[in-house]
Write a structure and sequence with these properties.
Layout (H helix, E strand, L loop, with lengths): L5 H22 L6 E5 L2 E4 H17 L3 E5 L3 E3 L3 E12 L1 H5 L6 E8 L2 E9 L4 E6 L4 E3 L2 E3 L11 E4 L9 H14 L2 E3 L4 H9 L5 E4 L4 H13 L3 E3 L7 H4 L2 E4 L1 H27 L2
Parallel strand pairs: 3-5, 11-12, 11-13
Antiparallel strand pairs: 1-2, 3-4, 5-6, 6-7, 7-8, 8-9, 9-10, 13-15, 14-15
Bound molecules: D-MYO-inositol-1-phosphate and calcium ion (2 copies).
């Protein structure tokens, strides 16, 4: 990438500034104050500090824009066409366990569509950026989704429902389908990075249910600008509303959608069988 646009520049500066605090806290993670938002849903002082920094930075450079942050929620702006969608720390459980796989994610929405996105993993200093119509980049190098056309050679990533969250029965069928068809299955624990790794051709396919707009905004644009396809589990486009995502190159996206739909009907039949069992 020659030079990032002025817009990408301010977004990159903002994530780097927020990440300075995260990197410091990551070094002292055992000292960090942590509270629970719900079952297995942690928020730490690190999340809150990072979001405060992002809010200050982004409102300083674009005062009128709206702001939707995971921790503070929706802050409407005077400019009704623009909204930042921010996850200050994606992969909080990884972070709290000292696992160096987490990210700061900023998406910019204009008139309901994501037009710019940055996902930054401070642990390995990888900056993924994309702007609509201008491609996707990792540390200034253009990235593209993988070209693999065989499931048996492919690695699929997923989000897994865990303690107290999600449909475990459906997930069992989906995971079985993935195990029977793909060369490898990965659960890395940071949705924004899962999508960024699809864009960089590291993962061939990815699916997850029950996500929030801040998990998906920047990552979905990265995949599209890297030549990939993103939809919900029914093949529809509005993933920020549904919270479900399927991503990959054209072939992988289509095949994974097919496998997920087969798994869903299997899960439905199994449920009927169980209900009918004496
Ligand atoms: C979580 C991560 C995780 C996904 C969860 C998200 P957070 O985000 O992206 O991979 O499975 O559903 O909530 O809470 O660490 O920002
Ligand atoms: Ca998240
Ligand atoms: Ca988060």
């Amino acid at each position: 990438m020659t030079t990032p646009s002025a817009l990408l520049k301010v977004m990159i500066e903002a994530v780097r500034k927020a990440a300075r605090g995260l990197t410091r806290d990551f070094g002292e993670v055992s000292e960090l104050q942590v509270s629970k938002k719900g079952a297995a849903d942690f928020v730490s002082a690190a999340d809150l500090k990072a979001e405060q920094t992002l809010f200050e930075e982004l409102t300083r450079v674009r005062p009128g824009y709206g702001f939707l942050g995971e921790e503070r929620g929706e802050i409407p702006g005077t400019d009704k066409t623009h909204r930042w969608i921010v996850d200050p720390l994606d992969g909080t459980t990884n972070f709290l366990h000292g696992i160096p796989h987490f990210a700061v994610s900023i998406g910019l929405e204009r008139d309901g569509a994501i037009v710019a996105g940055v996902v930054y993993n401070p642990a390995n200093d990888e900056v993924f950026v994309a702007e609509r119509g201008k491609g996707a980049y990792l540390n200034d190098k253009r990235i593209r989704v993988a070209a693999r056309q065989k499931l048996a050679d492919a690695v699929v990533a997923c989000g897994l429902p865990h303690y107290g969250r999600g449909d475990l029965a459906l997930a069992r069928h989906e995971i079985a389908a993935a195990q029977q068809n793909f060369a490898g299955l990965r659960r890395y624990g940071a949705a924004a990075l899962d999508l960024a790794w699809i864009a960089a051709g590291r993962f061939d396919a990815y699916w997850e249910r029950g996500l929030s707009p801040w998990d998906l905004a920047a990552g979905s644009l990265l995949v599209r600008e890297a030549g990939g396809f993103v939809s919900d589990c029914d093949g529809k486009g509005d993933i920020l509303k549904s919270g479900d995502v399927v991503a990959g190159n054209d072939f992988m996206h289509r095949e994974l959608l097919r496998l997920l739909q087969e798994a869903a009907s299997e899960a439905g039949k199994a449920e009927i069988r169980e209900a009918a069992a004496p």
